[in-house]
Amino acid sequence: MTTIGVLGGGQLGRMLILAGAPLGLRFRVLDHTADAPAGRLAELVVGDFTDPATLDRFAAGLDLVTLEFENVPLGAARSLAERLPVYPPPRALEVAQDRVREKRCFQELGIPTPDWRPAESASELRKGVAELGLPVIAKTQRLGYDGKGQRVLRSEADVGPTWDQLGGRPLIVETLVPFEREVSILAVRCRHGKAAHYPLVENVHEHGILRRSQAPALYATGELQVQAQNYAKKLLEALDYVGVLAIEFFVHGGRLLANEMAPRVHNSGHWTIEGAETSQFENHLRAILGWPLGSTAPRGHSVMYNLIGTLPPMAPVLRIEGTHVHLYGKAPRPGRKLGHITVRADDAETLEARVQALQESMNRFEAK
Amino acid sequence: MTTIGVLGGGQLGRMLILAGAPLGLRFRVLDHTADAPAGRLAELVVGDFTDPATLDRFAAGLDLVTLEFENVPLGAARSLAERLPVYPPPRALEVAQDRVREKRCFQELGIPTPDWRPAESASELRKGVAELGLPVIAKTQRLGYDGKGQRVLRSEADVGPTWDQLGGRPLIVETLVPFEREVSILAVRCRHGKAAHYPLVENVHEHGILRRSQAPALYATGELQVQAQNYAKKLLEALDYVGVLAIEFFVHGGRLLANEMAPRVHNSGHWTIEGAETSQFENHLRAILGWPLGSTAPRGHSVMYNLIGTLPPMAPVLRIEGTHVHLYGKAPRPGRKLGHITVRADDAETLEARVQALQESMNRFEAK
Questions:
Q1: Touching check for A314 and chain B: CB below 8 Å?
Q2: Of A48, A86, A136, A307, which alpha carbon lies 20 to 30 A from A63's?
Q3: ipTM surpassing 0.90, yes or no?
């Protein structure tokens, strides 16, 4: 029986395990906490990713290794890659972990992005802001997620304190794009090089955290889909990528500007569990195992809501036809992703009615 | 967090757990073997169902108890029901465990069945056969499954040895119905009394084991569906049933004859994982928790194949669009259900083409 090691035991790892169990796969999870959500469904190794003895214990007897968060220490991924297949490859992590490398990679492949400047110091930050013109967004080059490690700079008065506020760490400054919409594409590439794509997803973020995804993105013209697929194809090939890759874009002036990529299954792909013939989780596993990829065709229309910070009462939600609840088994905490709800329907009109009902149910709860 | 105890740790328990984890549920499984398929995804208590200390250990801290096989010792179910909600209720087990009680229950509710006679001795067996006329099928009254504990009697010469061949245990003799088709209905009833039904499924058995299910059953007229729903409704109410209940029917002369019921999630409902809006596993859990039931609407058309005895190579199967593989993690053994494959498509014609491709792939493997 094939045993897959997963670096990280969060909800993404948990959903990988739930998708892999029916395929006859076993899993071992490495996480630094004993109550990791994925740990209840698989063998859990608790320890530090940079500790060689922990890595040895984790690696013993595994057939291959994958990951569920991109900030896996690169040394750990490389050390594992010396003895086992590691997918996606450490090179993809290296690019995704550093916003400057990532932007350069997009640039080299002809994938447009907002204008940007690196800023290794407070004075470089001021220089970058002057060159780009306000408003801009400053982000730490490394270890940012869910809106953490970023600040929007709208006036000159915002510029001065930013370097210290973001911890005096290397930054990237980007033009703040007045985008019309945010979309993402989920692409998957198999060990044998075959690739597939899901339809574009439209995303809504609040305070830097994904709130809602709709798939297929209703307004997305065939042209945007083709553009996104072409960009994804270039990235997958340039990185010799294996597994699911997500790319987030701004839609600005009717064209795509790449914001960032995630070398893993992605929150904007959770709708695929019910809304596509094969989920992103199953396709990630099929890809890293060298199995044929499953159909990425959508099944009707889906909207996914993240449950952030608190959980609404479940009965009113479950009463709405086509709703599917996914809880991660995490303790409530402000800003924490505790679960998600996907609403599915065969057509967009029925979906809209169900989404309205769900929205009303959630508003009633939030108003209390 | 709600913790559900499951009596039995086979594939049905495993699929209940896979459906329940996203709902935020925890599970504890009681099985008499340490390598029970469900045991890898939940806490496993290994022991004898009739041992009070084992039952105490199993029950401690649970919120409610369900089961995944109907031959749970009745004493164990009743002992648990004194301290915890047990769904389906022990009364339903009592009826389903005994083919004579079951047939009487059908009879009392006006649900037609093949003609039958109880046979508590070899002479009663001869008398029953004489009254019904050959051919008949003789079955042990208790503990039969997957064609075990049954014999078809076609000639007078078959009658003599049957009593001993079936172990000298109480039997039931039934007219062997030259049925046109076999169908089943999956019904579900909530703690609050609300019920729902899936569409009729057409089943094909080989050597007494379910081989293939198709849903919705293509030829099933609205009339048969209504008949099946009415029978299910009567049973659910008479037994004050909570959870999923399956009833298997013969179609003979265009009407339904009840063959048997299963007070649990059922093999002929596995297609619901991909082929219905809400799976039988999720709806069983919603029902026993008193949550709103999920939509039982089919999503396109599905065919499910059981993988019995051996597993075919997976790549050719996964290459066919719309196939979904479910392996149970059991060691191969002749006649053993090791997994199933569901093929799904939006329309019946596309499904037929995919089923053909799957059949050819399986035949090539079986011919080797």
A1: yes
A2: A48
A3: yes
